[in-house]
Design goal:
It is built from twelve helices and 21 strands. It is of the alpha/beta class. It has a six-stranded mixed beta sheet with strand order 18-17-14-19-20-21, with helices on both faces. The chain crosses the membrane at residues 12-35, 41-61.
């Protein structure tokens, strides 16, 4: 019995309306000392307030489960994307109720604004929608849905608690994977910022023989099939398949820099997942290697259905390290693991030309056996700083230094191209688009 009373007491909250009513009663008692004609009015007013208070409590607690609510989310959250969250609330009271709904979102978001107010008629169901954008991978612990319920009397609120302590994992960005897949399959990549690539030459992998239609290349006419069928027949070819595409992700300290809440490592991870998805859609094999002062995870290139899920599971746990990457170990691993010529997309970052030159001998050795694409990042903060007009001498100094670093990044790309190494210098926000675009260009040019 004591436990039940305590439970009711814990979830009972007095409202501002009650305190205002009590303050009014106190004022009446004070005025009674000066105005005798008030008589018993203060006592009667106080009695009415307490009677309404008891009535309000009885109304709210008469129904053991007057409110039902639950949180609707996906089983996992997508890092760097807007994830929809929905709360459904049903009123099982026989009257309209005023609700204050507080959703306790994980502490990583540092949000205190998920506070909603609504009115629900008896038997109705209402939904609350909002979005959350995580910027770090890991486990996110949702707290309770706190619902404070009040009747039309409004002297007290009854609190309900739902869906306490629900943990959701945050995985590399997967929400837009279906969009990338659709765009790549339908050849409408320009709609997503990916430009069309003109095909050079003819793929050597035969696909089928079909009837000639206007626009087909007359050089592909199959004269033997034409003679047999009595109508023009042409050979069709498809892109080379079953090529290896490896994403190598640098986890060293150069990838800790944040942009718009996401670290460079998270941008690289999201782009690797998207590229792996598109590569398998194009019938290529996707693999993964992570690197810091030692070799992290090695996922051999495969095209099986579970490969993308395996890659995401591995990348879900990766974190940046504080030491420099071991390029010698990377070269040895590539030579021992990757036996055939492959496309290697190396996600890293260089903040100075000397840093690139230290790694250049190993990059040239890798490029000797594989098609190497080095992806590194523009510093968008420096770019915005250089575009702002200088207001004083200090501003001129900062702008000059920013332009110097921007120019040095371009020199790095030229240095890589001089040694026959492909490169992408990209803003972090456009990384995925630019990497997929380059992959499709290399496929169209039959370089892999």
């Amino acid at each position: 019995m004591k436990k039940i009373v305590q439970q009711y007491y814990i979830n009972l909250f007095l409202t501002d309306r009650l305190f205002i009513a009590l303050a009014f009663c106190v004022l009446l008692f004070i005025l009674k000392f000066f105005l005798n004609w008030l008589g018993e009015i203060p006592e009667m007013a106080t009695g009415v307030v307490f009677a309404l208070l008891i009535l309000d409590i009885v109304i709210l607690y008469r129904n053991k489960a007057g409110i039902e609510a639950h949180r609707l989310t996906s089983k996992r959250l997508s890092n760097g994307d807007e994830n929809p969250i929905q709360i459904e609330i049903k009123n099982r009271y026989g009257f309209s109720v005023n609700l204050r709904v507080i959703d306790e979102v994980p502490f990583q978001f540092q949000l205190r604004d998920k506070d909603f107010r609504l009115n629900i008629r008896p038997g109705d169901i209402k939904s609350i929608h909002y979005n959350l954008r995580p910027t770090k991978r890991g486990e996110y612990d949702f707290g309770f849905i706190r619902i404070y319920t009040g009747s039309s009397i409004g002297l007290v609120n009854r609190r309900y608690n739902f869906d306490g302590s629900r943990i959701l994992p945050v995985y590399p960005s997967f929400i837009n994977l279906g969009l990338y897949e659709l765009m790549a399959a339908s050849n409408h990549l320009t709609e997503f910022g990916i430009k069309k690539i003109r095909k050079v030459g003819q793929s050597s992998e035969f696909d089928q023989i079909k009837n000639y239609v206007g626009g087909d290349d007359i050089r592909t006419i199959n004269w033997k099939a034409t003679a047999r069928k009595g109508g023009l027949m042409v050979n069709t070819y498809t892109d080379e398949r079953s090529q290896n595409v490896y994403c190598i992700i640098d986890k060293s300290r150069v990838m800790r820099m944040p942009f718009e809440g996401l670290s460079l490592l998270d941008y690289a991870i999201n782009a690797s997942v998207a590229l792996s998805k598109v590569a398998m859609l194009k019938q290529d094999k996707a693999g993964l290697i992570t690197l810091s002062e030692t070799i992290g995870t090695v996922v051999p290139a495969e095209r099986k259905a579970a490969q993308l899920g395996h890659i995401m599971q591995v990348l879900h746990k990766e974190k940046t390290r504080y030491l420099e990457s071991n390029m010698e170990s990377l070269y040895s691993t590539i030579r021992s693991v990757i036996k055939q010529r492959s496309l290697i997309v190396f996600f890293t970052n260089f903040e100075s030309l000397s840093a690139l030159q230290r790694q250049m001998p190993y990059l040239k050795r890798i490029a000797k056996y594989h098609l190497l694409l080095v992806v590194f990042f523009e510093n968008t903060e420096l770019k915005s700083l250089s575009s702002e007009p200088a207001k004083d001498v200090e501003g001129i100094y900062h702008k000059t230094i920013a332009e110097k670093f921007i120019y040095e990044k371009k020199l790095m790309a030229l240095e890589l191209n001089k040694h026959g190494i492909l490169s992408i210098l990209t803003p972090p926000q456009k990384l995925t688009i630019n990497v997929i675009n380059r992959y499709l260009a290399l496929k169209a040019q039959q370089r892999i």
